[in-house]
């Protein structure tokens, strides 16, 4: 497995600089081979190409960790049921992927690289199909939008409820969301911003940046009464029910969503664990969820909330990037750590936690934005 992981990483370096062209070539080859597959994908393919590359990078990065590799791909298989992917589609997908890799690998592409990707894709497809076959849930849930509240210029808090079966998930997980009325066949992942509730209501925090095909529709167009589609829950940024360690959470922007869900989960039964939440933004407007966090903290003395702003000198609180503020507190060794926000923020926070000698197995994180 170590040699396989090495070959995958070495060969990916050959094509990484042209990853966008590789993705375009992959889909062109796929649709020429089987034109019927085009109906499974959105008209606008830019987001889909990005998702393909994220999945490849995530899968190849986890090959050296068999448990993580298996968990990720089984979840991905369950998630892909929303596209109505059938077992025979995996053969066409694998052939198109290998053709794209060989094309962009050029003269440096070796037989060893080809064999490594063939073996890796076979393992990926097997686990994805096993995950899909073992899932008794529907391919997706239809959910009615109950509430839509704008928070500032670019953020909306949306609540919805599945119409039939409740959606089974754990606090800290995320789902793919489609707005079929506004952006059919186009899906984007969002963290669920609340712990599971008896009334089955789900909350999402959505921020639109630029055009933002799905996020733009959710923030600017979706209204109460509209229907959304929600795919199977994914993600492992969840609480260990057996842990008694104190907790530190770091959030920026809409990365607050899974952190809020984790705090809600802890509020239902925690009596012994101190929980520290650091929430950051450029200005106080970015701290859209701070009032609710403060209300939870007022009810639970074990919870402390530290807000900070990096570009708001008039803010009456900590100044600086949230990772820098995190570094001024601590020590964090011996804590369970959860981090959610932009890729840049997450990387900075992970460096701080490493400097505090927090072991990797005690850290869970999600990135919001380009990976």
From TrEMBL:
Cofactor(s) recorded in Swiss-Prot or TrEMBL: heme b; FAD
Ranges for domain Globin: 1-133
Record-annotated FAD-binding FR-type domain positions: 138-240
Keyword field: 2Fe-2S, Heme, Iron, Iron-sulfur, Metal-binding, NAD, NADP, Oxygen transport, Transport
EC number(s) from the headed UniProt entry: 1.14.12.17
Catalysis: reaction(s): 2 nitric oxide + NADPH + 2 O2 = 2 nitrate + NADP(+) + H(+); 2 nitric oxide + NADH + 2 O2 = 2 nitrate + NAD(+) + H(+)
Class of this enzyme: oxidoreductase
Keyword Metal-binding annotated: yes
InterPro entries in alphabetical order: Cbr1-like_FAD-bd_dom, FAD-bd_FR_type, FNR_nucleotide-bd, Globin, Globin-like_sf, Globin/Proto, MRET, OxRdtase_FAD/NAD-bd
Pfam families: FAD_binding_6, Globin, NAD_binding_1
SUPFAM superfamilies, sorted: Ferredoxin reductase-like, C-terminal NADP-linked domain, Globin-like, Riboflavin synthase domain-like
Keyword check for Ribosomal protein: no
Homology family: Belongs to the globin family. In the C-terminal section; belongs to the flavoprotein pyridine nucleotide cytochrome reductase family.
Name listed for the protein in its UniProt record: nitric oxide dioxygenase
Organism: Micromonospora zhanjiangensis
Lineage: Bacteria, Bacillati, Actinomycetota, Actinomycetes, Micromonosporales
